[in-house]
Amino acid sequence: MKSIVNFVLRNKLAIWIMTIIIASAGIYSGVKMKMETLPDISVPIISVATTYPGATPEQVANDVSIPIENAVESLKSVKTVTSTSYQNMSSLQIEYKYGIDMKVAQDNVKEVIEKITFPDTVDKPIIDRVSINAFPVIALSVSNDKQSIAELTDTVENNIVTDIQGIDGVGSAAASGQQIDKVKLTYDEAKLKSYGLTEEAIAQIIQATDLKMPLGLFNFEKSQESVAVDGKATTVKELENLLIPLTITDPAQAAAAAAAGVPASIKLKDVATIEKVGVVESVSRTNGKEAIAIQVVKGQDANTVDVVNAVKDKLKTYEDRYDVTIDTTLDQGQPIEASVKTMFDKALFGALFAVLIILLFLRNFRSTIISIVSIPMSLLMGIIVLKQMDITLNMMTLGAMTVAIGRVIDDSIVVVENIYRRMHLPDEKLKGKALIREATLEMFRPIVSSTLVTVAVFVPLGLVGGMVGEIFLPFALTVAFALIGSLIIAVTIVPVLSHSLFKKQINNPTKVIKKQTEEHGKMAVGYTRILKWVLNHKWITSMATLIVLIGSLCLTPLVGFSFMPDDEQKLMYVTYTPKAGQTEKDIAKDVEKVEQLFMERKDVKMTQLSTGGANPMMGGSGNGSLMYVTFDSDTKNFEAVKEKVMNKIMGLKQAGEWKSQDFSMTSNSELSYSVYGNSEKDLKATVKKNRSDHV
C-alpha cells in the first residue's frame, strides 16, 4: 500500500488524467444506460397456447389440456403446471425452479408435446417463454371520422405499422380492429350434385393445393438454382381457375361420362361464385369511437424509454401525413422517466445536504472540497461497472446510489481529517509528501475494514434466491461498487488533492500550529455533558435503548409490508372472459355496458377497448375483451377507486367473467388460492362455500 501512495504523490498529473478519464467514462456510461422501472427479471415460466376451433371447455380439457399436463409434469425441474380450458382454446403455464436454462426447458417441452396425438382440428401448440418484454410498452389508437374502416386499415397496415416496425428497438407492432380481406364461396348446389361433388370435398382439394414443394436443384445457363412448386392461390382469379378433378369410381359410369364428353376436371368458378369481402375480426374503440389499435412491443435488449420516445416522436408526422387522429392509450416510458427523475432529484438533494453537514462540522472549505469529490467519483466508477454488466438504471440501482451517498464520503473524510489533524500536532516532525503519506497509511486499515464490513452487509441481498434475489442483486452490486470506488479514491485522489490544497500548511506546520488556538464550541460542550451522564448511568441508558428497540418492533405491523411500493400510474387493465357458448352479439352488449360505465365517470380520461384477436395481456378465447382505462393523475386513494369500480361491474351480473388485472410488480390487496378436487361438482360446492365466508 505504501508504494501505491508513493506512486500517487509522485505522479499527480497521472492521477488527474485518470480522474478525468473516469469522470468522462462514467458520464458517458450513465447517458447510455437503459432506463427501466425495475431490473430485468427472467421469469421461469413457459406458456403453451393451443387453439381447438369449435370445442367446448370440457372437450378442450379432455383432448388438449390434460394430455399436455401429463406429458410435461414429469419433466426435470418443473415446479407447477397450471392449465385453463376455455371455449376454443387451451392455456397452460409451466413454472420451473429458478436457476435453470429456460431455452433448454423450452426445447424439452416442444419435444414431449410433439409426441402427443391431438384431434385433427387442433392447431399446432404455440410454446413460448413468459417475458415482461412480451407486453406492450406503448399502445396507440388511430381514428378518422372521414375514412371508412377499409381505407383506415390500408393507412395503418401499409404505412403506420410498417414504419413503426422499422424504428430501432421495436420488436413488433400489431394492429387490431382493422378490416381483413377474406374470400367468400357461394356454391351452386344443383351443379355440385350434377358433378357428384360436395362442399367438404372441394374444401379438402383447396387445402391440398395450398402446398409448397421443392423439386430439387436444376442447372440453368449461368447458375444452379433451387426450384419449388407453390400451389397457393394469391388472387381471386387464380382461385376461380383452380381445377377440381371429377372422380367416378364406377367403371361403367366413367366410360359413359367419357363418351358423353364430360371433362375429367372443372374449374372452381363453374360450381361456385367467388368474391372478396372485408371482415372486421376484432373490435377496437377509443372513448366509444371506432378506431384501430396498435400495440408496440420492444425488442429483448431495447430500452423501454428510448423505444417509447422514438414512437411518440413519429406520431405528429403520422397525423399530418395521413390526416388521422392518434391517441396514446398506454405509455410505459413516462412513469419510468418520472421514477428515474424523482430518484435522481432525491440523490442530488442528499448529496447537497451531505456537503452542507460536512462543511458545518469540518468548518474548513478546502477539507470539504477534498471530501465531497468522493461522492460523484465513487458513483461514476460504480456506473461504469454497471454498464459493462448490462445492468439498467432503475429504481433499485438509483435507490442504492442514494443510500451509498452517505457512506462513500466516510473514507475520504477519515483520511482528510487525519491529514488535517497531523498538520496541527505540536510535535509533528513530518511535513510535505511524507506527512500526507503517513497520514493516509495510518487510516488505510480502518477504512478498508469499514468498507469490507459494509459491503458484506449489502452483498447477501443479491444472493437471495428467486425473484427477490434478481430484483435486489443490482441494488447490492451498486452499493458494493460505489463503496469499493470510494476506498480507491480515498487512497489515490484524496492524498493528491490534500497535497495540492494544503501545500503551504504541510510544508510549514509551525505556522499552522501558532494560528491554531481553537477552543471547544457550545455544541461540543453540550455533547460532553451528555456523554458524561450516559457513562455515569449505564443501566438506565441500556434499559432505555432496549425499550426503544422493542417499541420499534411493535410498531412494525402498523407500517405494513409490501413487495414493491405502489405504482403511481393511475391505470386499470380490465379483461372479460365470455361464458362458453355466449354469442358475439351478447358479448358486445356486455362489454358496451361496462365501457359506458367507465366513460360516465368524471375521473376517467380515456378508455381503450379491444375485443377479439390475439393479445399478450389477455388469455382465453379469441372473443374476449381487454380495456385500458386511464384515470386522472390526481385521483386519490386509487386502490379504493378500483375496488369500487369492480364492485359495480360485478353488480351487473353478466354471463362472462370480469377481472381487474395487475401486470405491475407493485403491492395489492388481492388474495388468491387454488382449490383441488376429484370432480367439478365437488369444486363448485367448496368454492361457493369459501366465497360466502370471505364476502
Automatic annotation (TrEMBL):
Classification via Pfam families: ACR_tran (PF00873)
Segments crossing the lipid bilayer: 13-31, 343-362, 368-386, 443-465, 471-497, 539-564
Source species, domain of life: Bacteria
InterPro entries per UniProt: AcrB_DN_DC_subdom, Acrflvin-R
Coiled-coil segments: none
GO molecular function, one term: xenobiotic transmembrane transporter activity
SUPFAM superfamilies reported in the protein's UniProt record: Multidrug efflux transporter AcrB pore domain, PN1, PN2, PC1 and PC2 subdomains, Multidrug efflux transporter AcrB TolC docking domain, DN and DC subdomains, Multidrug efflux transporter AcrB transmembrane domain
Sorted UniProt keywords: Membrane, Transmembrane, Transmembrane helix
Gene Ontology CC terms: plasma membrane
PANTHER family documented for this protein: PTHR32063, SWARMING MOTILITY PROTEIN SWRC (PTHR32063:SF0)
Protein name (database record): Transporter AcrB/AcrD/AcrF family protein
Lineage: Bacteria, Bacillati, Bacillota, Bacilli, Bacillales
